[in-house]
Each structure stands twice: as structure tokens, then as C-alpha cells.
Amino acid sequence: MLNQTDRTELFHIYYKRWITVYKEGAIRKVTMAKYLMTQQWLEKLVPNLCLCHITRLTYQQLLNDYAAEHERQTTMDFHHQLKGAILDAVDEGLIDRDPTRKAIIKGKTPREKKPKYLNQFELHTLLSHLNLAPEINWDWFILLVAKTGMRFSEALALTPKDFDFTHQMLSVNKTWDYKDDGGFLPTKNQSSVRKIELDWQTVIQFSQLIKGLAEDQPIFVHGDGKIYNSTVNDILTRRCKSAGVPSISIHGLRHTHASLLLFAGVSIASVARRLGHASMTTTQKTYLHIIQELENKDVDLVMRSLSGLG
């Protein structure tokens, strides 16, 4: 890239070439779309900023301008996506010093967010209000995600041959490209390829539901294969309202599944494997609030045990 670049090149042009060279083909489409969105924001906020004019002051002002319209976490993501390109430009001698050093991340006050998960009573209530028809429908999809903790794209990609009813197992080995033109895609990472244990009730239900279906065709996707996340979330929202429980998303069912397992005393390692997380660190970060709550209960239990000694 150095041969094609000089210090006076516009930053947004350099950044666009940088993501083409380093990111295109190396990251998932959905992640690439975020980098391209960042590039569009550069064109909007700093259309005339040259590489040689990027200082700590100009960079901080760029972050501040972006933060005026975005929440803090989104601004943090924006900063991280820019930082890789800027550090490469510093290494190439196009920028004198690292302008991202000690950057202050600001942002708008977060909007009130939906609850991320349901408690055990609320989940039971929700499941009792599902329309579980004799044939596969989206209510069955909601039930299966709640009982397995699968990602939306993983559940969409399920075919009859992924079910091993004899051993009460479900194989997760692919995803469905619902954000584009449909079709099977690899899983998010290698850890996402896994087998999930099923309870006997789910085994009996789905062994009847998928009987006679094509072995290698997705059971929840039909026609042109185009599925919208919002369609299934709307159905779930209606079911939540009907059940009188907080409205959550399909991804919230995944959080609910993990939360209930942790509160039931299942180890973080087992939950991480079941969810297909790349490492236990991901699980710990995502469910830190629950883990801390459980640790507080553990402290109470320890103190009660010790007080009985002597």
C-alpha cells in the first residue's frame, strides 16, 4: 500500500483501500459491512482530512462528532475499526505519531433496552402460550431456540439429518445466510460446531414433526429461502404480550437459556460449549452480572457453612 500512498492522501480514501486489502475476504460479510459503514462516516464527517493532518486533537474531534449521534459502545467500535488502519499508517511513516493514544470515548445516553432474558417462571409461561401446531411453524422454532440456546442462523440451518433421536443429540455444523440470498454457510467459528443434548420431550415432539421431510433441506426455511429476523421477532413479541411476560428477541431466548443453566449450577465451561462460544472468556463477559450474583450466593453459603463449625 505504501507505493500507492503519500502523506497528503485523504484519510477516507486510505481507509477504504486499507479495508479492501486487509479485511475483504478475511472477515464475515456482516463484519465487513460494519467497516464499510465506518468508511461512509469518514466521508461524511472528515471528507477533507489528509493523513498528514491526523493528530490527537483532530482524531479526538472526529470521535466526538461521531459520538454526538451514537451511543458509547458504538463509538468504541468505530474507534477500534479506525485504529487498525491508523496504526498501519504510523508504521508506514504516513502519520508521525499514534493519534489514537489516550483517546476519550464518549457517546449518547443509551436508550432504555429491552430485557435480555426471562426468568424461569416467565419462560415457562411464554412456552405455554406458543401455538405448537401439528406441523412445523415459527412457534416450534421459538421452542427449540429456548431449549437449546442456538443462534438464529444456526437454528434456521437445521435439517432432519442433524437430529440424532437415538442419542438425544442435535448437531450444529452450519448456518443459514438469512442476511443475503439464503443458502448454507459455515458456523461463526470452529467452536460453534458442536452437539447439543436434547431433553426427551423435545426428542419425541421433533421426531414426529420432521418425519418424511427431505433429509438435507432446512426444516424451518421454505420457498426462496429468504427469512427476515424481524419476522420471527415480531411473532415472539406477540407471544410474549399474550403471555404477559417482558418482550424479548430471539437472541434473548439464547440469553435466557444460558442464564437458566448458570442459575441451575451448570458450570461456565459446559455453558460455553453448549452455546458454541470460542472460549469461556466470552461466556464470562456476556453473563458477568449473573456470575457475580451467583458468587454472592456462594459467599453466603460459605459463611453459613463456616458458622456451623466449632
Please name the defining characteristics of this protein.
310 residues, mainly alpha, DNA polymerase, domain 1, two-stranded antiparallel sheet, 5 strands
Fold and architecture overview:
- The protein is mainly alpha-helical and 310 residues long.
- It folds into two domains: 2-91, Orthogonal Bundle (DNA polymerase, domain 1), CATH 1.10.150.130; 120-295, hpI Integrase, Chain A.
- 52% of the residues lie in helices and 5% in strands.
- It contains 13 helices and five strands.
- It has helices at 11-22, 29-45, 56-67, 72-91, 120-128, 138-148, 152-156, 200-209, 229-243, 250-263, 268-275, 280-286, 288-307, and strands at residues 163-164, 169-172, 175-176, 184-185, 194-197.
- The strands form two sheets. A three-stranded antiparallel sheet has the order 1-2-5, with no helix packed on it. It has a two-stranded antiparallel ribbon with strand order 3-4.
- The longest helix is centred in the N-terminal third of the chain and has 20 residues, at 72-91.
- The relative contact order is 0.09.
